Amino acid sequence: MSAEDKIKNAAQDLKGKAEEVIGKITNDDSKVAEGKADQTAAKAKGTVEDVKDAFKK
Predict the structure, then answer these.
(1) DSSP state string for the chain
(2) Do 23 and 17 contact (CB within 8 A), yes or no?
(3) What is the pLDDT of residues 1-55, one digit of tens each?
């Protein structure tokens, strides 16, 4: 996984965490769900890239 990809995934994860917190503060369940979805997507991308890297070795 390239450094650029790691940074993008980390940014997406942080964005998701922020959305989740804002959603909890404002009682906006859709914002909480959106934040969790962003976090899950970032983790999934990271996992896929880790698997790709394992096969390159």
Answers:
(1) --HHHHHHHHHHHHHHHHHHHHHHHTT-HHHHHHHHHHHHHHHHHHHHHHHHHHHH-
(2) no
(3) 678 888 999 999 999 999 999 999 999 999 999 999 999 999 999 888 888 888 8
Distance CA 6, CA 13 (A): 10
Looking up tokens 């880790």 gives 50
Helix crossing, 29-56 with 3-25: angle to 10°? 160
Q: Which residue has the tokens 């909480």?
A: 32
Asked if residue 10 lies in contact with residue 40, where contact means CB atoms within 8 angstroms, the answer is no
